[in-house]
């Protein structure tokens, strides 16, 4: 007998149930678009009652916000998994590469996070603050590069410009303006070039 995603998750625990429902919702969104995201359809896809969804999420609006939060939570874990490199500049570039890798690994979560694929959704203030935490890692890496003189300027300004460059490049790539192989070469060159514009003063000759 075939078991549903909900039944399989029940054996693990409530967190697994919540994740299974979000996974079914993102699959439905990917396959049929935002109009298909109703509580009844999500419940049908997950193999649970609508009551389960209302109990866990409080309704469609909160479930959509949970998708948005889940996207940023996964994104933050990807950035946190980036291991320190040979220096601060390399760390910033590694975070940039992780940003792009996440967008490819979780394209629909990425679009929920950044591209308004659910037009009626607007994140609450608390959710917005949570979302920005992941970008503190990029700002911290920029601050480390400024601290050792590899970059010069305000770390937040550097991080914000990096984010704008990364997001623009990745969004164009996901939209099909650049193929994957071409973007493999363009993206690191773009990020490195932007950082060079913030390069610190050259070391004085000894």
Automatic annotation (TrEMBL):
PROSITE patterns: HTH_TETR_2. InterPro entries: Homeodomain-like_sf, HTH-type_TetR-like_transc_reg, HTH_TetR, MT1864/Rv1816-like_C, Tet_transcr_reg_TetR-rel_C_sf. Residues 38-57 bind DNA. Residues 15-75 form the HTH tetR-type domain. One of its GO terms (molecular function) is transcription cis-regulatory region binding. It comes from the Bacteria. This is TetR/AcrR family transcriptional regulator. It comes from Spongiactinospora rosea.
